[in-house]
Each structure stands twice: as C-alpha cells, then as structure tokens.
UniProtKB/TrEMBL annotation:
Organism, scientific name: Cupriavidus taiwanensis
Matching Pfam families: SnoaL_2
The protein's name in its UniProt record: SnoaL-like domain-containing protein
Keywords, in A-Z order: Plasmid
SUPFAM superfamilies the record matches: NTF2-like
Length: 130
C-alpha cells in the first residue's frame, strides 16, 4: 500500500471509531484482524480480540453502553512500510468513574487495503487507585 492509501485507511478507521460506528470500523479490518487492548485480564497482553466480527461485536457493545466516554488529543502518526505508529493522549473514566489520563501508542499493521493488527499500549499519567 502507498502512504496515501494508508493515510486514507487510517482516516476512515479513526472517523468511524470517533463516530461510534462499529460497522464502519469493521469495514477497515481484515477478516483475521487482531486487536490487543491496552487493558484487561489477559496477562501480559491485556484483552485480545481475534477477527473482524469479534471486534464488531465488542465495539457495538462498547458504543451502546456508553463506555466510550474517552477523548483523544495530541495525535501523531508515523508510517513505516506496512507499520503505522500512532501516538496520542487519552482522557476518560475507569469503570468506577475515576478519571483516566494516559499517553498511548498504537502499532498497526496494514496489508491489501485493510488493517491486520492494532496493538495498543497506554502509559498511565494518572490512574485510579484500587
């Protein structure tokens, strides 16, 4: 894929995500897409979603439940061949309502016009104390 094609794919993905459009996000994903979330119970990976349909189901539930009260800022993207690095800041709330402030880095892999991988990492600037 060319850099222009990758930028267009990332813009479509990001726009659908920000709009809460699970089907729009899924349209950007390969059938065998893998999403390693920055949080979860899976050690050490966090939660891992396998496949486009698993992501679609997860996002439909997430968007419908209002769990996505997060905002992203300070976004910066670097394209390195088939790898895309996106740095950003995320603000939101934990499940218990405590504020979350994190700096994130997502590694994406692209091929044949689709996203194949989203591996997300968050550095906690402030995180709720358990």
């Amino acid at each position: 894929m060319t850099e222009t094609e990758i930028r267009a794919l990332m813009a479509t993905f990001g726009g659908a995500f920000r709009a809460g459009d699970a089907d729009g996000v899924a349209a950007c994903l390969a059938d065998d897409f893998i999403w390693r979330l920055p949080t979860g119970t899976g050690d050490p990976q966090g939660d891992v979603l396998h496949g486009r349909e698993a992501v679609r189901r997860y996002l439909r539930e997430r968007f419908a439940s209002g769990q996505d009260g997060v905002t992203f800022s300070d976004s910066r993207m670097e394209i390195l061949g088939d790898a895309v690095l996106v740095q950003y800041r995320v603000h939101g709330s934990a499940d218990d309502g405590s504020p979350v402030d994190a700096v994130g880095l997502d590694l994406f892999r692209v091929a044949e016009g689709k996203l194949r991988l989203k591996d997300a990492y968050w550095k906690q600037v402030s995180w709720p104390v358990s």
